Automatic annotation (TrEMBL):
One of its GO terms (molecular function) is RNA binding. The keyword Cytoplasm does not apply. Transmembrane segments: none annotated. Keywords: Repeat. NCBIfam families: PPR. This is Putative Pentatricopeptide repeat-containing protein. One of its GO terms (biological process) is RNA modification. InterPro entries: PPR_At4g14850-like_plant, PPR_rpt, TPR-like_helical_dom_sf.
Length: 113
């Protein structure tokens, strides 16, 4: 799409990145991440959540945590993605700690949480 001149926006990135994680193509996901930074979408909560999810599915726990930490705020979507990604990567104790931090900060839990 980008090569054809389409401008990738939040909805197009948010709907495409989960597929990148599903096919475990971290190199392609890294290109998406670079694009996100280049166009200034790294603070969009949906984009952050799908970046965390993509890195988690690609078994890149360090990148997943880095994306979460760079945002600097806890939101329900990114916290859910981080907890799921940590547990998916066998980091269950870390996932429980993030969940406890999440609850301790008073963030409203949802059905995913």
């Amino acid at each position: 799409m980008h090569a054809e001149g389409f401008i990738l926006d939040e909805p197009s990135i948010s709907s495409t990145l989960p597929m990148v994680g599903d096919i475990d193509d971290v190199a392609f996901g890294g290109h998406f991440h670079g694009y996100v930074i280049k166009v200034g979408l790294e603070s969009d909560s949906c984009v952050v959540s799908v970046l965390i999810d993509m890195y988690g599915k690609c078994r890149r726990a360090e990148e997943m945590v880095r994306v979460f930490d760079e945002v600097g705020r806890m939101e329900v979507g990114s916290c859910n993605a981080l907890v799921a990604g940590l547990s998916r990567n066998s980091l269950v104790n870390n996932a429980f700690q993030v969940f406890r931090d999440f609850k301790g900060q008073g963030i409203d839990l949802n059905v995913v949480s």
